[in-house]
Amino acid sequence: MSRRLKLIVAYDGSQFAGWQSQSHRNTIQDYLERAFERVGDKRVRVHGAGRTDAGVHALAQCAHVDLATNTWTHVTYPPGSPLAQAYDVVANSKNDMYGMQMNNDKLWITDGKTLKTVWIDFPVKGAGCRRGHLDSQDRLWCGVFHGNALAMFDPKTQKITEWKAPTPWTRPYDAQFDDKGYVWAAGMDNDLAVRMNTQTGEFTEYLLPRQTNVRHVEVQKSGNFSSLWLGDQQGNTIIRVEPLAP
């Protein structure tokens, strides 16, 4: 019995040749189908309710995909593992899952093929990541909420590096790397967004225009300098932070 999933898709289409699949495979449909193939090891067709042309963006494009089975696989952890209670999970290019929990000072990684899990210790005890994003090198960048810090896990070294935020109660909720040398973050406990130079560790702080409650960050990587998009839960607004210089 197949399972049909409804998809609501948002994207910046400036780097894509529209929605519909083409031979060069640089379309939104092609990227989504490759993502489902990495997850299920099988090709599937994503059906869009409409199409966009090259360079056109979308906020809530509707599509659906039919999965071959309706079977869920339960992942178990090794004996003696700490309580996970994942607050956020992300998958890398190999379909391995990274799990995070702000009250757990460990990061856990579940292999997408074997389903075996390993645990990585944070160098500073007492706090873990709340939410995060992967970069183009499959490194995880995340906000250490209770530790008032940013963290990066490098799968090549299997180590976590942390950087303390300069202002108390910044408490990054989420973080994302721009693939140019800077990581952006923001949180819910003060009105600052931060950008950190990953080469020097220097932070730049941006005072937001109003009281906010940031739970998620998105980095726009196009242009000379990356910019930050935030959803303001309290003010019902969307905020963009755009630097004028490195």
Features:
single chain, about 250 residues, mainly beta, four-stranded antiparallel sheet, 1 helix, 18 strands
Give an overview in words.
This protein is mainly β. It has 1 helix and 18 strands. The N and C termini lie far apart (53 Å). 27% of the residues are buried.
Task: Note the topology.
Blueprint: E1 3-11, H1 28-40, E2 46-48, E3 58-67, E4 88-91, E5 97-100, E6 106-110, E7 117-121, E8 132-134, E9 140-144, E10 149-154, E11 159-164, E12 172-177, E13 182-187, E14 192-197, E15 203-207, E16 217-220, E17 227-232, E18 237-241
Query: Helices and strands: which structural class?
Result: mainly beta
Rg result: 19 Å
Mean pLDDT: 91
Unreliable residue stretches: none
Number of strands: 18
Biggest beta-sheet profile: 4 strands, antiparallel
The helix tally amounts to 1
Shape: globular
Ends distance: 53 Å
**Helix proportion range:** under 10%
Strand content: 35-45%
What's the arrangement of strands in the largest beta sheet?
4-5-6-7
* SSE string, helices as H and strands as E: EHEEEEEEEEEEEEEEEEE
